[in-house]
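JOB MANIFEST
job_type = single_chain_structure
chain_count = 1
residues = 359
[input]
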Amino acid sequence: MTTGFVPPPYPHDRLDGLKATAASHPDGRGLVDLAIGTPCDPPPPSVVAALATSGAERGYPTSIGSRRLRDAAAGWLARRFGVQVEPAQLAACVGTKEWVATTPQWLRLRHPDRDTVLFPATSYPTYAMGATLAGCRAVPYADLGAVADDDAARALCLWVNSPSNPTGELADLGAAAAWGRAQGVPVLSDECYAEFTWDGPPRTILEHGPDGVLAAHSLSKRSNLAGVRAGFYAGDGDLVAYLSEVRKHAGFMVPGPVQAAAAVAFDDDEHVEAQRARYRRRLDLLGGALGAPTPAGSFYLWVPAPGGDGWAMTADLAERAGCLVSPGDFYGPAGAGHVRVAVVQPDDRLAVVAERLAG
């Protein structure tokens, strides 16, 4: 009999039955899947060309990331956020999801006397799962002022996510950095939706200095490259040095051709502006159909469910609009009264949903 850890069902696997309902919509135009934030638009041709022609596939890639990739990522941080990051303060990761899921393990090795991971109460489920995989307590917080003294004293790290998945809210990153420094707790800032900030300019926690903080960025959303798994983390030089050495021993390496393509992607801002325009148009289209406001950031609509029942609304949208969305409890009990709608399908498919809802 198994008595140890048993992985819970993967959240989106719980939607299989409703997926069949949505796919059988009577108008015959099929399922419109808005449950997972998978980009549908093509990446830049120059990036695909670099992926195919780098010649980097024969040798082992550097775990920390090539100098070319790190320079490109640092250049993007300087252009987009006005922050200067030295090469020693930045390292590559194999997409940011694995970095989110594994970093508590590496921090626990360094600080075995600490056993708590703090994360937003309504948030991406991998923050809590990363704590579980590290054998830590996963402790949600509604706001920093509500974190108990005992939880702060035991904390390995504090996660922030801005713009938020799923709510689209913008966090006060300066306040988070100050809290972490006052408590002696590293602050890990997941900023993979920063390019899709609608309320003012994009923000990074690195604007408030690198000490005690790390920012994680990804090409999955920015450049429609979710399939290549490329990202980086940057900030506190001591934390970057420690994590990059541990990850080197564990064999975490972004493939060489992917590193070459990622450098080209970070050098190019034009394709991101085009993608921003697409997502803003899609948010307006579907937000109007659902009566949902445009979020402060991200490409998700966080829609209140009638009667506070996110699963009932998910089932209703599957049947009535032939679309699949995510019930809010995927993102913690505090989200149960909402659904998350990812506007990641082409305009014509979103128009199908809007037409069905209007009918």
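[summary]
The longest helix spans residues 270-290.
The CA atoms of residues 47 and 261 lie 5 Å apart.
exit_status = 0
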